[in-house]
Amino acid sequence: MIAAPALPWWQDLTPRQIARLAEEDGVAVLPLAAIEQHGEHLPLSTDLDIALGLLHAALPKLRPGLPVCVLPPLAVGLSLEHCAFAGTLSLSPETALASLVELGDSVARAGFRRLVLFNSHGGNKALVDLAALKLRVAHRMLVVRANYFRFAPPPDALPAAELRHGLHGGALETAMMLHLAPHKVRTEVIADFASIGRDMAAHGSVLGPEGEAGFGWMAQDLNPGGATGDARLGDAVLGARLVDHFAGVLARVIEDARDFALAGLVPAEDRAAPPG
Ligand SMILES: [Zn+2]
After folding, report:
1. Which are the contacts of 184, defined by CB distance < 8 A and separation ≥ 6?
2. How far apart are CA 78 and CA 234, in angstroms?
3. In this structure, are residues 161 and 219 in contact, taking their beta carbons and an 8 Å threshold?
4. Quick check: 55 and 250 in contact, CB under 8 A?
5. I want to staple 124 with a disulfide (CB 3.0 to 4.6 A). Which of 77, 81, 107, 188 is the partner?
6. CATH number attached to the domain at 12-263
7. pTM of the entire predicted model
8. For residue 35, how far is its CA from the centre of ligand 1 (angstroms)?
9. Which residues surround ligand 1, an ion (CB under 5 A)?
């Protein structure tokens, strides 16, 4: 495990300190993850470890003095696609969305107007989209949808096919885990976990699990072992590079969230002006 400074946790503060941070127009960051199977080579905590590892690496990259705090992570998310594997914990979509929105409501109630939803689990994408919209309608608050796996990766870090088809427990996640928490990786069972998506693309299909046209899938539909991607391509050196890169993007997201002009957020009750 790499040595990391403590995060500026929301829950370490007192009501008065929270109020002061809100007055300083601080940014609240909510980490969203999953506790779900990642094959036999990675632990159930993979997405949580990556989310917190990226946050630890991102905060020292922020410009000095930027007011920020990190909410307690929503460790369990929407993981129905992994429910066939023992150990996966999942909320229902309705419960997960309600939890996310109610946490956002609490942040708004504390006076914060800048919230970054920082998500490390693909299955939470739709939740992040819906929660950000619902919170924006309810509050005049900037709600950022930041999914690290949507950040452009460093050029030439991995082959395009692996980035496209290595959706789960492949090279990307394995590499970052070998850097962040090598003691949790069972290197002896690392392998190339072929995805049905790779075969479909090879046969010229536009349709794929996450292709131009996608379909609802469960992990075992893509690979019977539950992982997809060539995990052999991941090592700790690549992991360090990926963590540093994604953390740099995350730091910029937080800075941009702080700099965003809130005046542009029109109150939901105001009618949009008709053109002309
Ligand atoms: Zn994952």
Report:
1. 42, 43, 45, 49, 177
2. 26
3. no
4. yes
5. 77
6. 3.40.50.10310
7. 0.95
8. 9
9. 46-47
